[in-house]
Design goal:
It is a single chain. This protein is mainly alpha-helical and about 170 residues long. A hairpin with a 5-residue loop joins strand 1 and strand 2. The longest helix is centred in the middle third of the chain and has 42 residues. Helix 2 packs antiparallel against helix 3 and helix 3 runs antiparallel to helix 4. It folds into two domains: about 80 residues; about 45 residues, no CATH class. The chain contains six helices and two strands, in the order H-H-H-H-E-E-H-H. It has a two-stranded antiparallel sheet with strand order 1-2.
Length: about 170
């Protein structure tokens, strides 16, 4: 019964949603895709093989094909970037600032959001050591508690030392 339900469910999903399509990159030509499919076949062969010797041979063939795939995709990406750079140079020569902007964004990618760290006076910290020192100060201030020499044992849970002792393994992950 479950098998029939699964079959009907999958068939109706394919009718309504269609097959899942892989999004192909702009810069990969057809040749690397064929090599990728061959590599997938070799990977499946590794999993299906029972003999250790045959598994080793299949793994060696997979490693060779993997290197071919990576070299081929690297070359395609380099070719694609060179073509985009030539288009950008042409757009710059022809004063097409819109095209130049879009090509530059395509070449450079979306980029990362970089957050800045500032010291207590609001000055931006650039040096990694200064940033680490500021983070240390921040967390020490956050965990800082007023302690006296005659703190009762029942109130020890609010001190930094007790917190550090109880949660040290979580802080060092």
């Amino acid at each position: 019964m479950w098998g029939r339900f699964k079959e009907v469910y999958n068939e109706s999903a394919k009718k309504v949603l269609g097959e899942k399509r892989r999004v192909k990159s702009d810069w990969i030509s057809g040749k690397p895709y064929r090599k990728i499919e061959e590599r997938q076949g070799l990977k499946a062969k590794i999993g299906c093989t029972q003999s250790a010797r045959m598994k080793e041979r299949a793994a060696d063939a997979y490693a060779v094909k993997d290197k071919e795939v990576k070299a081929s995709t690297r070359a395609d990406k380099q070719r694609w970037l060179n073509d985009l750079a030539e288009e950008a140079e042409t757009a710059a020569r022809n004063n097409c600032s819109g095209d130049l902007y879009h090509l530059t964004r395509k070449i450079a990618g979306q980029g990362r959001n970089i957050t800045t760290i500032k010291d207590k006076e609001g000055k931006q910290l650039v040096n990694d050591d200064e940033v680490l020192e500021r983070w240390r100060e921040h967390f020490e201030e956050g965990f800082e508690c007023t302690t006296t020499s005659h703190t009762p044992a029942s109130d020890r849970s609010s001190t930094w030392g007790h917190y550090k002792h109880r949660h040290w393994r979580h802080l060092n992950r």
